[in-house]
Amino acid sequence: MKNRLKVLRAEHDLSQADLGERIGLSRQAINAIEREKYDPSLPVAIRIARLFETTVEEIFFLDDHC
Amino acid sequence: MASPKALRFRMSLGVTTFITTVMFLAGVVILARGSFLPELTLTPSSDPAIDIALLIGVPAILAVILAVGSAADRKCADDFAYQLLATSAMIGMFTIIGTNAIWAIDFLRDAIGIRDLRGPDMMAIGLVGWGVSYLAFRIRGGLM
After folding, report:
1. Where are the domains of chain B?
2. Nearest residue on chain A to B140, judged by CA atoms?
3. Which of B7, B12, B79 lies nearest to residue A41, judging by beta carbons?
4. Is B44 helix (H, G, I), strand (E, B) or coil?
5. pTM of the entire predicted model
6. What is the ipTM of this complex?
7. Short-list B122, B98, B134, B111, CA closest to B30
8. Which among A32, A40, A44 is the nearest to B141, CB-wise?
9. Which of B10, B79, B84 is the mutation pick for testing A, counting most A CBs within 10 A?
């Protein structure tokens, strides 16, 4: 799954650690999401979307492969 | 927003990585040590009915307890850590099955003279499979 978390995080001037602290994830987890090595669970995706005051679909979108 | 205490509990990725690495090393040691142990002799069953009941009952009870613990983990642990542990645990289980299948090939026994697998070897193979896959996902996000 692809995402534009890194762009959103930069727009809001947040570090990975800051974002992780706000949504209850580790910095490593945020890094893994941004590198698209980890697809977060639905509750985490919703928490991220709420933090940036947008929808899950605006942040995460399906990859064409698999 | 989560409380600071809950956050500390969720910041457990370093802990899970440490524990998994230790388990992996323990698995390696158990497998290596097993090759120097004397030939295994199996104790015959004195009452098959009790054995069957225990062999089915103990894993079933343990599985229920672990399922409850896993539900708590899913709710409270770091989501990334939980996914890593769950995925690598499944790979560890299939590693046990795959290794047993390879060890069942008569050619290996006859041509190479590999030793039989013991009970602790099964656990150790699972730990090695679990550890390797956890670290692969943790470091590289998988190998693809």
Report:
1. 12-35+78-140
2. A37
3. B79
4. coil
5. 0.75
6. 0.71
7. B122
8. A32
9. B79
